[in-house]
Each structure stands twice: as structure tokens, then as C-alpha cells.
Amino acid sequence: MSMSFERYMLDMVQPMRDDLTRIGIQELRTPEEVEAAIPEAKGTTLVVINSVCGCAAGQCRPGVAQALQHDVLPDHLYTVFAGQDKEATAKAREYFAPYPPSSPSIALLKDGELVHFIERHQIENRSAADIAADLTGAFDRFCR
């Protein structure tokens, strides 16, 4: 029995995608989807750069899920998957200047302007609860 590498990777990462989509975050899988969503979004927009790494699984995705239980939330919720949807991720990263590419990472934009950014190095050594607290603080500041 032979399985293509692409099929294997799709099967492997689907649960990682589901961690975010099942809590209401919309995936943007192409550059065109990113272009149609991010620059046109009015109000506040959360963009999660998802990844297969351990800090995405242990801290980033659970931290985002906890933060989305808060009473103040962004108007729009999106995710792109680094290493999987490469072109969509590259397009999304254009909105996160001056920050270099980082995955996982989390961006909060207000009317298309970056107002808060959590880089990988701010994820990998913190707990999910710490990341949730960071995000809810940003939600309180920018999403009211």
C-alpha cells in the first residue's frame, strides 16, 4: 500500500486545522482568500498563523481557544497554516510588518492596521493561559 506524501500531510495536519476551525476561526487557504478577507475587514481582525510545531499544539492553539471565551472579541477570526498553505501565509504576513515571519504567531489588526502581535518566541516559553491573558488584554484594549 502506498500513500502520497501530500495525502499523508493533509491527514496529519487536519486535526491541527480543526483545533481552530471548530472554535469558529475561518481558514484562509489561498492568497486570494487572504486578499478578500484581511484588507477589507472593518473593525478588528485576529489572524492566527498555525503550525505543526509543539508550541502551536501546546500553547498557541489552546491559548487562542481560551482567549475566545472572553466577553470582548475581535470582529473577524482567521487562520493560515504555515508550511501547508504557503502562498496564503506569505500573503497574510505582508500585513504584519515590521515583524519577520514567525510561526506560530498571532496578529490583531484594527481596520487593517497591525495593533498587536505575538511572535513565536513569545509563545514557546509561555503557557496557554499566559497567551490567553495576553490576547484578552489586547481584545479589551482594541476591540471595544
TrEMBL record:
<protein>
    <submittedName>
        <fullName>BrxA/BrxB family bacilliredoxin</fullName>
    </submittedName>
</protein>
<dbReference type="Pfam" id="PF06491">
    <property type="entry name" value="Disulph_isomer"/>
</dbReference>
<dbReference type="InterPro" id="IPR009474">
    <property type="entry name" value="BrxB/BrxA"/>
</dbReference>
<comment type="similarity">
    <text>Belongs to the bacilliredoxin family.</text>
</comment>
